[in-house]
Write a structure and sequence with these properties.
The protein is an all-alpha fold. It is built from six helices and no strands. The chain has one domain.
């Protein structure tokens, strides 16, 4: 079933906000040592990546400010290399890149 651009953006934004909520109050050391939070963040990043992957070409081409391939590529790495995930990389993505992505997603208006 094909999802509308509006639904994809809404869900991606929701998962981004969840990542931000999950890491609230953590620093990198506490994040790396909190298995539940690490896994919750990782699953949310996988969901974000899957939604980026299934987003329609019109949505992607109309919003080149989002690194659609990078976001969906991260999902691929997380799913297929789960045992070898670099915890500090996930922390950096959650702390520094997800807030930027959240703002980008919030600024997109879908024409449907």
């Amino acid at each position: 079933m094909k999802r509308s651009g509006t639904v994809i953006l809404r869900k991606m934004t929701q998962y981004c906000r969840e990542v931000t909520d999950f890491i609230h109050g953590h620093d990198m050391a506490s994040f790396v040592n909190d298995l539940k939070t690490f896994r919750a963040v990782t699953l949310s990043l996988i969901q974000i990546g899957e939604l980026a992957y299934v987003a329609g070409e019109e949505l992607k081409s109309g919003n080149p400010q989002i690194d659609w391939k990078g976001v969906s590529g991260l999902r691929h790495r997380l799913v297929h290399d789960y045992e070898d995930i670099n915890h500090s990389l996930i922390w950096d993505i959650a702390k520094n890149q997800v807030p930027v992505l959240t703002k980008q997603l919030e600024q997109i208006t879908v024409k449907e």
